[in-house]
Amino acid sequence: DAGVIQSPRHEVTEMGQEVTLRCKPISGHNSLFWYRQTMMRGLELLIYFNNNVPIDDSGMPEDRFSAKMPNASFSTLKIQPSEPRDSAVYFCASSLSAGGRTDTQYFGPGTRLTVL
Amino acid sequence: AQSVSQHNHHVILSEAASLELGCNYSYGGTVNLFWYVQYPGQHLQLLLKYFSGDPLVKGIKGFEAEFIKSKFSFNLRKPSVQWSDTAEYFCAVIRGNAGNMLTFGGGTRLMVKP
């Protein structure tokens, strides 16, 4: 099992540029989560998809952030335009939920984003 | 709103010392509870989880946690830590009616001195 795959692992960009982070969940999982980790705020849930549909995006900081899940095996998190305060590690996680039963979330290696 | 509290932000121990990291949550209904570990520069890995049944849960690497419903707590323990346990530990909770949404505590950084 390849686990959750994220790309790129590191991204350095300049303020104002568009940034796209990518995630491939574990095959067969139907829930996908995007988290942001910073020293100041810890781990924050940004958005959560179930069966490719966004269920809760209340954690998305502002309109500059958007996420999509066009199919069960791929999701993107886009920041446009990026700002220095967006610098963080962005984690993607996936899990299998069936019949309302909660299951463990498995995390990807993260993308370390630096916005200069 | 639900919150998860980890009161110890930094813990320093010597090898072979016993460890207990506190975790409290504020939701009174059904919960699912998790401890994740993040080794330096790595992603979060599941240590153990509690969904139901025996409130004493055993996880990987000799860790265990006890769910005490009356205290809203899910403390993590290990009888004898090793230098390789140096990491950040996160408690996380899913409310019974919150789908799959994890709420994380602020984390506890553990440093084990050799």
SS-based class of chain A: mainly beta
Helices of chain B, by number, come to 0
What percentage of residues of chain A falls in helices of 4 or more residues? under 10%
The sequence of SSEs of chain A as H and E is EEEEEEEEEEE
- The coarse overall form of chain B would be globular
Largest sheet of chain A: 7 strands, mixed
H/I helix tally of chain A = 0
Low-confidence stretches of chain B: none
Q: How much is the average pLDDT of chain B?
A: 91
Summarize the main sheet of chain B: 6 strands, mixed
Note the gap between the termini of chain A: 36 Å
Rg over CA atoms of chain A: 14 Å
Question: Which of globular, elongated, flat, extended, rod-shaped describes the shape of chain A?
Answer: globular
How many β-strand stretches of chain B? 12
Strand content of chain A: over 45%
Describe the structure.
Chain A is 0% helix and 53% strand. With 116 residues, chain A is an all-beta fold. The termini of chain A are far apart. In chain A, 37% of the residues are buried. Helices cover 0% and strands 51% of the residues of chain B. Chain B has strands at 4-5, 10-14, 19-21, 24-25, 31-38, 44-50, 56-58, 64-68, 73-78, 87-95, 103-104, 108-113. Chain B starts with a strand and ends with a strand. Chain A binds chain B through residues 31, 33, 42-43, 45, 48, 50, 55-56, 91, 93, 95, 97, 102-110, and chain B through 32, 34, 36, 42-46, 49, 51, 90, 94, 99-107.
